[in-house]
Predict the structure.
Amino acid sequence: ILTDGAVDNKKDVIQQVKLHSDSIRVMCFGLGDGCDEDLVKSVADAGRGTYTIAQDGSSTLGGDIIIALGKAMEPLLCDI
């Protein structure tokens, strides 16, 4: 998920991710200095994924996306 974090229904977004977290993993990227970091972190946590905050003017977003995609390809343990 790429977001500036400006949503009106933050709890609903997190709840939807939780509802599907048994079959998905969510990597969340917060874009810009004013993004809602709590939303970005909460969505990633609910989706058993990772998060990255890219500040305005960041030159590392491409590398951060590659790292997140690598983590997304790792096997996910469940029903242990």
